[in-house]
């Protein structure tokens, strides 16, 4: 839910890879067009789905439905729980738990997942499916399918979905637009981040022209939380720590939330996704980090940078991935252990100016 600032500015090891070329688009269109009438299509988005993952997947699913695909499932790894802010999205009826997903679909399409590890227990479908299409915008994408529509310059995966639907002659309607708008606004931080190009606003204009209501959508996605989440944020923000000398003096601010914190306030894990946005506004730190406990000694780390540090380099070094200004990984040990590992990587991830 919290966005991925600056997806367009990705800077990872090796030469920058540009977006899909005409042969990639043609291969993707052909993969859909040659499906037989009774084909089974499985759509998969990344674990712990955010607005871009869910919105891109469901928007594309609705498009396939308009094309007449009848045997169609959408899924993601892990518990089949859609975060409350997205529980109104059109196309949710396509969702099945990962345990109920077609074992050997004719086509699998992956959304917003930079690597196979983000597909969890569904990763075997890459081998069992007749064909595999990957739609993504992470520069770190490992190209794990057969046909790849991967564009690091795209502000969200939904930008790529839109282009593919256009090439498949599926007209935008309000339901598809709601899904793609949620994806676009979550990944651009409501049009605040660096990746917000003129083309992004033109895309948003086409989505709005279908008659969708941006005020209602933003309220549901960004501005509605249970009162318990407000109290939980108060507690977790109250224990934030500022380390001005970290990252060679560019500064680090961090906090953590335990499973016990969630239980005490009777909250679901999704409420913590917005926490990083309240931490990263700290003026005195270039890097912000939130550690969310996911097991007895396991933490999901979310990192954000204002530009001095490439947090994707930190995340990749620690087994995760992401974008230059927004990245994450899973760390082991105590919260202090995980922060120690981040501190150790920060100096090496400074961006030369
Ligand atoms: P988040 O902090 O969860 O909003 O994620 C920020 C960015 O980091 C997103 O682009 C994710 O794709 C990426 N990311 C987060 N966690 C991981 C992980 N464990 N492995 C790979 N990429 C991750
Ligand atoms: Mn995502
Ligand atoms: Mn995304």
Topology:
Layout: H1 22-33, E1 40-45, H2 51-66, E2 71-75, E3 107-111, H3 125-128, E4 132-136, E5 147-150, H4 157-167, H5 174-187, H6 198-208, H7 214-222, H8 227-238, E6 241-243, E7 252-257, H9 259-264, H10 275-279, E8 287-295, E9 298-305, H11 311-317, E10 321-322, E11 326-332, H12 335-346
Parallel strand pairs: 1-2, 1-3, 3-4, 4-5, 7-8
Antiparallel strand pairs: 6-7, 8-9, 9-11, 10-11
Helix pairs in contact: 2-4, 2-5, 4-5, 5-6, 5-7
Observed structural traits:
353 residues, alpha/beta, six-stranded mixed beta sheet, five-stranded parallel beta sheet, 34% helix, binds adenosine monophosphate, binds manganese (II) ion
Report what the structure shows:
The chain is an alpha/beta fold and 353 residues long. The protein contains 12 helices and 11 strands. It has helices at 22-33, 51-66, 125-128, 157-167, 174-187, 198-208, 214-222, 227-238, 259-264, 275-279, 311-317, 335-346; strands spanning 40-45, 71-75, 107-111, 132-136, 147-150, 241-243, 252-257, 287-295, 298-305, 321-322, 326-332. It has a 6-stranded mixed β-sheet with strand order 6-7-8-9-11-10. Mean pLDDT is 95; it is low at 1-15.
């Amino acid at each position: 839910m919290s966005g991925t600032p600056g997806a367009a500015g990705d800077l990872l090891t090796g030469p920058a890879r540009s977006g899909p070329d005409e042969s990639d688009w043609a291969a993707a269109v052909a993969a859909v067009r040659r499906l037989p009438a009774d084909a089974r299509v499985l759509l998969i988005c990344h674990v712990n789905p955010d607005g871009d993952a869910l919105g891109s997947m469901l928007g594309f699913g609705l498009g396939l439905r308009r094309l007449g695909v009848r045997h169609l499932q959408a899924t993601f790894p892990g518990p089949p729980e859609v975060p409350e802010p997205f529980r109104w999205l059109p196309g949710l009826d396509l969702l099945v738990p990962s345990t109920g997903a077609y074992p050997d679909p004719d086509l699998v399409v992956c959304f917003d997942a930079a690597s196979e590890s983000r597909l969890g227990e569904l990763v075997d479908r890459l081998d069992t499916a007749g064909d595999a299409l990957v739609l993504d915008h992470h520069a770190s994408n490992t190209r794990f399918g057969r046909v790849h529509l991967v564009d690091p310059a795209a502000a969200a995966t939904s930008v790529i979905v839109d282009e593919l639907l256009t090439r498949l002659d599926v007209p935008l309607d309000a339901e598809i637009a709601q899904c793609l708008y949620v994806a676009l606004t979550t990944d651009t931080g409501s049009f605040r981040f660096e990746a917000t190009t003129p083309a992004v606003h033109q895309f948003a204009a086409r989505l709005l022209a279908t008659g969708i209501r941006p005020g209602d959508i933003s309220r549901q996605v960004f501005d509605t939380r249970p009162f318990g989440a407000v109290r939980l944020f108060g507690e977790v923000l109250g224990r934030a720590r500022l380390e001005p000398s970290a990252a060679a003096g560019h500064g680090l601010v961090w906090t953590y939330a335990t499973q016990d914190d969630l239980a005490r306030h009777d909250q679901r894990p999704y409420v913590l996704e917005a926490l990083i946005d309240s931490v990263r506004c700290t003026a005195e730190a270039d890097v912000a980090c939130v550690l969310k406990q996911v097991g007895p000694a396991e933490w999901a780390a979310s990192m954000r940078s204002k530009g001095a540090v490439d947090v994707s380099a930190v995340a990749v070094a620690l087994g995760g991935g992401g974008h230059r200004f927004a990245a994450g990984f899973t760390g082991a040990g105590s919260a202090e252990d995980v922060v120690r590992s981040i501190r150790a990587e920060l100096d090496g991830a400074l961006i030369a100016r």
